[in-house]
């Protein structure tokens, strides 16, 4: 039996070793990938950028992480080695150049383990003179009457005609920051940023919000969404252009009745597999105001927003109140009863205090008579005064003794 156990353990050990040796070549073979390239400045005719930090990011499924970072050499070159070549893995390279973020094309290594991917950058500018919005879209979805809000999304297609990347700043120490601005209606809440804002910061301003997001030469897409509270069946949605806008489209859910003097109805269109009533306007200068009147909104009621109460909790609360009232009443009765009851020690003190007080008064009067006799004998007072004071003191003494006898009866 022992020999059989030893033999079985030996077989398992050999299988484990074979499995390890079989897996290791695969692991090493899967990490033979290489990605190399250069950082090129397109503003300066693709000149190489030296000493620029480049980061490699790996994505697999819904997960992503940075693999590592290197700096470019004098020729702007970089290289990453020993990379996994699984077909489910993809890579991108990114760098931050003059406060703007640049990303390479996506690279996979399953077909070819060695790939070249350059990162193209542009010189920065702080001028928006060559910036315009080619297409601005406002999408107003069906209202949520239970919360009394309209769900709105805005999409922008910026066109930068410059050969440099516009890079703004949120520094407001000198007043309004030189940044990219986006408008919002008054009172919005739950703002969610979408395309174009990754890696950048935002700052609230009176007309909406500002961002230090960069605008590279060419087309740049941005999007965000928010909620607009409403309290009646009508609402005037206001949109303001902050840059020259070639085309403005406002798409409204067919369940809402919309009208406007600032935009023209263009029928029903399909967006995101949903039909919308479209309104359009063209060639709008910066700071133009467009109003869209919405009608037919379901008015939120007090019951929609009021919390629901559980009947069992209500009765539990009432029971607790009754219990507290009973406890307070019992404490009150106990205190009242204690006040009415006097302990034997207290009774003894009460009974002895009166005789002590009476004895003290009687002794005082006797002392006064004795002092009066001494003064008369010493010749300090005459007989008339002596007899008058003595009779008065003796009268007080008789009264006190009479009261004492009455109390003892």
Automatic annotation (TrEMBL):
Source organism superkingdom: Bacteria
InterPro entries, per the entry: Carb-bd-like_fold
Chain intervals for the UniProt region annotation (Disordered): 382-409
TM annotation in the entry: 313-334
Signal peptide segment: 1-29
Molecular function in Gene Ontology: carbohydrate binding
Keywords per UniProt: Membrane, Signal, Transmembrane, Transmembrane helix
Annotated Basic and acidic residues bias: 382-392
Designated name of the protein: Carboxypeptidase regulatory-like domain-containing protein
């Amino acid at each position: 039996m022992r020999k059989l156990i030893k033999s079985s353990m030996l077989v398992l050990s050999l299988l484990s070793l074979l499995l390890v040796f079989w897996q290791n070549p695969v692991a090493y073979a899967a990490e033979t990938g290489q990605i190399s390239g250069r950082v090129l400045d397109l503003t300066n005719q693709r000149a190489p950028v030296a000493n620029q930090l480049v980061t490699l990011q790996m994505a697999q499924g819904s997960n992503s992480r940075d693999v590592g970072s290197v700096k470019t050499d004098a020729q702007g070159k970089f290289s990453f080695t020993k990379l996994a070549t699984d077909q489910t893995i993809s890579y991108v390279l990114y760098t931050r150049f003059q406060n703007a973020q640049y990303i390479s094309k996506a690279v996979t290594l399953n077909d070819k383990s060695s790939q070249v991917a350059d990162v193209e950058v542009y010189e920065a500018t702080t001028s928006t003179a060559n910036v315009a919005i080619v297409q601005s879209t406002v999408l107003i979805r069906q209202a949520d009457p239970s919360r009394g809000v309209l769900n709105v999304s805005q999409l922008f297609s910026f066109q930068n005609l410059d050969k440099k990347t516009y890079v703004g700043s949120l520094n407001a120490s000198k007043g309004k920051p030189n940044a990219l601005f986006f408008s919002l209606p008054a009172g919005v809440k739950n703002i969610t940023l979408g395309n174009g804002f990754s890696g950048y910061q935002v700052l609230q301003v009176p007309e909406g919000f500002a961002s230090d997001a960069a605008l590279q030469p060419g087309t740049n897409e941005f999007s965000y969404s928010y909620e607009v509270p409403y309290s009646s069946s009508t609402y005037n949605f206001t949109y303001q252009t902050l840059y020259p806008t070639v085309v403005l489209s406002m798409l409204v859910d067919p369940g809402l009745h919309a009208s406007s003097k600032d935009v023209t109805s263009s029928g029903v269109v399909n967006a995101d597999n949903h039909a919308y009533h479209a309104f359009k306007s063209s060639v709008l200068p910066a700071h133009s105001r467009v109003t869209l009147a919405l009608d037919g909104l379901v008015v939120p009621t007090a019951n929609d927003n009021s919390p629901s109460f559980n009947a069992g909790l209500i009765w539990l609360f009432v029971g607790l109140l009754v219990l507290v009232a009973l406890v307070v009443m019992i404490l009150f009765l106990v205190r009242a009863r204690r006040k009415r009851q006097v302990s034997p020690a207290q009774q003894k003190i009460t009974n002895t205090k009166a005789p002590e007080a009476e004895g003290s008064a009687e002794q005082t009067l006797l002392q006064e008579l004795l002092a009066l006799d001494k003064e008369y004998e010493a010749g300090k007072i005459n007989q008339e005064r002596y007899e008058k004071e003595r009779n008065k003191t003796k009268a007080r003494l008789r009264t006190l003794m009479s009261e004492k006898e009455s109390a003892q009866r």
